[in-house]
């Protein structure tokens, strides 16, 4: 087993959570567990749903896109919960979440970029491995337009999870290690191409 799948976290409690999530991926209730993890990761849970999505897509490649869709929907609904925490409960809950995970710098940086980029920063950061809970809570704190937040989240999270599903569906087990080791690079590259495609269409039209 490669090092990525051997508990890639330094802190003991994160390693234990990672092991637990991996066991869920192989259990009889894997699909509802995937939805639950995707929901919770958007506001409070530290382990990304990709940890479950990858082995589940490999186990049932014919259901890879269905699993990606469920993962996306659950993440977006969870994102709305994170938005609500930021908008309504930041002092009592949101700040404690940011403090617990040590996301102070990320939180401050994300707030600064909102003024310039708005919904685009949500789409970009939501697609990459940037902590999604920071995005959702900060979006609520600054009261980003809710429709913009939802649309950006749909684009970002959907693109990320369907990219993983598409690669696994097409190439199967041989690409698993490559995805796990290079997910950050893959997602950023795909987002750059995605945005570049829209910019090119705008220029041509």
Features:
mainly alpha, disordered N terminus, 205 residues
Structural class by helix and strand composition: mainly alpha
Low-confidence stretches: 1-11, 197-202
Order of helices and strands: HHHHHHHHHH
Number of domains: 1
Number of strands: 0
The backbone outline, from C-alpha atoms, is globular
Percent helix: over 70%
Mean pLDDT: 79
Describe the protein.
The protein has one domain. The chain is built from ten helices and no strands. It has helices at residues 12-25, 30-41, 50-59, 64-88, 90-101, 104-117, 119-127, 132-141, 146-171, 176-204. α4 runs parallel beside α8 (132-141). It is globular, with a radius of gyration of 17 Å. Mean pLDDT is 79; it is low at 1-11 and 197-202.
Describe the structure concisely for a colleague.
The protein is mainly α and 205 residues long.
Question: What is the element layout, followed by pairings?
Answer:
Elements: H1 12-25, H2 30-41, H3 50-59, H4 64-88, H5 90-101, H6 104-117, H7 119-127, H8 132-141, H9 146-171, H10 176-204
């Amino acid at each position: 087993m490669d090092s990525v799948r051997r508990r890639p976290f330094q802190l003991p409690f994160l390693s234990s959570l990672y092991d637990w999530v991996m066991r869920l991926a192989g259990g009889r209730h894997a699909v509802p567990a995937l939805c639950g993890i995707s929901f919770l990761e958007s506001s409070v849970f530290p382990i990304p749903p990709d940890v479950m999505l990858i082995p589940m897509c490999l186990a049932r490649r014919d259901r890879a896109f269905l699993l990606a869709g469920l993962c996306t929907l659950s993440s977006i609904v969870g994102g709305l919960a994170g938005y609500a925490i930021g908008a309504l409960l930041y002092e009592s809950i949101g700040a404690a979440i940011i403090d617990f995970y040590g996301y102070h710098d990320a939180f401050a940086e994300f707030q600064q970029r909102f003024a310039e980029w708005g919904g685009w920063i949500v789409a970009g950061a939501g697609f990459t491995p940037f902590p999604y809970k920071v995005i959702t809570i900060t979006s609520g704190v600054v009261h980003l337009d809710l429709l913009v937040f939802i649309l950006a989240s749909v684009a970002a999270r959907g693109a990320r999870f369907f990219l993983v599903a598409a690669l696994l569906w097409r190439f199967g087990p041989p690409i698993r290690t490559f995805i796990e080791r290079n997910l950050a690079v893959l997602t950023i590259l795909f987002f750059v191409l995605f945005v570049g495609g829209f910019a090119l269409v705008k220029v041509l039209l």
